[in-house]
Amino acid sequence: MLDLGSLIYRIPALLFAITIHEYAHAQCADSLGDPTPRFMGRLSFNPLSHLDPIGALLLVIAGFGWAKPVVINPSNFRNRREDMIRVALAGPGSNLLLCFMAAFLSAVMNKFGLLSDGVHAILFWIQRYNVWFAFFNLIPIPPLDGSKFLLELLPAWTAYKLEYFMGRYGFFILIALVFAGVVSAIVNPFAKGYMVLVNSILGIFFK
Q1: With 70 as the cut, is the pLDDT of residue 149 above it?
Q2: Catalytic residue numbers, as ranges
Q3: Nearest 5°: phi and psi at 17?
Q4: Mean per-residue pLDDT for 67-71?
Q5: Per-residue exposure over 15-45, b if at least 16 CB sit within 10 Å of its own CB, e if not
């Protein structure tokens, strides 16, 4: 059940996670020679540049959702396969880094008695959304980042056939897996495992 009282913390945390995720894709593509995201206004920290209203609403209510995909032109890359993989992984990677940074900040503030309930709540949701968003996007089903990573690893003809099939049915497959609980069963163990690792690392320094 949706806790309306937590929205004051969840919405900023969600917008932060989405914005950094999409900005990371855009920045990575731009740094590798593709100016398309820059021309389309995606090289921005403005959440409105990246927000898909329906996807964001579903993320808050149902625990899954999406942002506006960053459009790139692979023909601008010097090494298409390697650069496409880098761009695909930039978003989830940025979310995992943000999750760690939020956990670190929370530990530091708690150490010095500066962690108020409100700050603790927003840092908690930043961690939760970012770790979940990272592993959710690594699922190899379009339009998620994992699909782009997978397609670059497959032989060209296999990738073409898979991309054609998933382009038509991938979204519906993903929705079905979400409501069947399969996505949560896949993502949650990785998210929990990452948080255990983060807390173990921080525990060394903040005993």
Answers
A1: yes
A2: 22
A3: -65, -45
A4: 87
A5: bbbbbbbbbbbbbbbbebebebbeeeebbbe
